[in-house]
Amino acid sequence: MKLWSITVLLLLIFLAVISLGFAYTDGSIRLVGGTSNLEGRVEVCSGGSWGTVCDDFWGISDATVVCRQLGYEPISALGSAYFGQGNGSIVLDDVQCVGSESYLTNCTHTINHNCTHSEDAGVRCALCTTGSIRLVNGSHDWEGRVEVCHSGSWGTVCADYWGYLDAAVVCRQLGWGTSGTYRSSAYFGQGTGSILLSDVQCTGTEQFLTNCTHLSNRNCRHSEDAGVTCHVCSSGALRLVGGSNSSEGRVELCLNGRWGTVCDDSWDNTDAGVVCRQLGLGTTGTAHSSAYFGLGIGSILLDDVACDGTEQFLANCTHTFCDAYWDSTDAGVVCRQLGYGSGTAFGSAHFAQESGALVMDNVRCDGTESHLTNCTHLTVDKCFPPTDAGVRCARK
């Protein structure tokens, strides 16, 4: 029994050694000897073992590649075994990256060296670059809590004075269009760490959020964290989805920054021709109905489309809009009328369909109205499928 136990123990040790030897692939890198995982001596996996890098020609371009490979941003390149001397082999020498490489081993280098471990290279990285921003905790990449990088760490933005111009700057900086819906009261959840900006007041033309007039945090809590939902397309734009080529598919229309579909009631070849003309695909088309190219998602934006064939844009054809124009500005008027704070808009009968008459459509508030009925709107008695509008209000 004792011999059997020793055999099992030796087998386990052997397997552990094997697994350690192949835990990393050639070209993997790690940082060793720093005060955090953001800095240290650069070590490279070669042949299943970790080795170091000689600091000959070592500079910020090389540090940039190292930090990027690890998912960080670069701060500085360090030499002369700043983070202590390694052991084992020196696997890279004369490294000369241009800075765009995905992996350190893709950079120009030599493997025959004349270095000692007193020349081991190191780097210092940061989680992010000061002034960069990101959106966190949204359902899509184009929405979420706004977080700003300062001194290598992420922090949040207080929603005091937060508005649509600030949202527009955030969306533009991130490449998600040029407009957005602003969110407040930690709509996308509360952040952690510092609240870096408050009283943000952008003009809408700034390239970076940190260029906007702002204060450092004074009296905010994370329950006031700001967020945005960016508008990812231009109102009136069309696209074809689900076809076997770019000349066919389900017709989708952009309205208020979101893609939606078109109901096939009254849909015919004349309407299809207008779609094709708008997309630059000729002046005639064949209409398909009953979700021929698959079911869409999101709102159904147009119904009873009746083009005469001369229109340049589908949205110019006769039709019925449903809750398509309902947005946070309209929701804000509702909430103010009820004695609450800011509001979030919901469509597509988010809070269930009402059985009574539909009395308002195409509601377009400018945000200053004291009553919803003061907003521009149409009186309608038909809207299908159910698209009753709703709001969620914040307490003052």
Briefly note the CATH topology name of the largest domain: Mac-2 Binding Protein
Total helical elements: 5
Portion of residues within helices:
10-25%
Q: Quickly give the structural class.
A: alpha+beta
Sum up the overall morphology in one term: flat
Keywords: Disulfide bond, Glycoprotein, Membrane, Repeat, Secreted, Signal, Transmembrane, Transmembrane helix
Main location: membrane
Pfam families: SRCR
Membrane topology: Single-pass membrane protein
Characterise the protein shown here.
This protein is α+β, with helices and mostly antiparallel strands and 396 residues long. The chain has four domains: 29-126, Roll (Mac-2 Binding Protein); 133-230, Mac-2 Binding Protein, CATH 3.10.250; 238-320, Mac-2 Binding Protein, CATH 3.10.250.10; 328-393, Mac-2 Binding Protein, CATH 3.10.250.10. The protein contains five helices and 23 strands. The protein has helices spanning 2-21, 60-69, 164-174, 269-278, 328-337; strands at 29-33, 39-46, 49-53, 73-78, 90-96, 108-110, 122-126, 133-137, 143-150, 153-157, 180-183, 195-201, 213-215, 227-230, 238-242, 249-255, 258-262, 300-306, 318-321, 343-346, 361-364, 376-378, 390-393. Strands 1, 2, 3, 4, 5, 6 and 7 form a seven-stranded mixed β-sheet that branches. The longest helix has 20 residues, at 2-21. It starts with a helix and ends with a strand. Residues 14-22, 353-357 and 380-386 have low confidence and may be disordered. Residues 29-126, 133-231, 238-336, 333-394 form the SRCR domain. Keywords: Disulfide bond, Glycoprotein, Membrane, Repeat, Secreted, Signal, Transmembrane, Transmembrane helix.
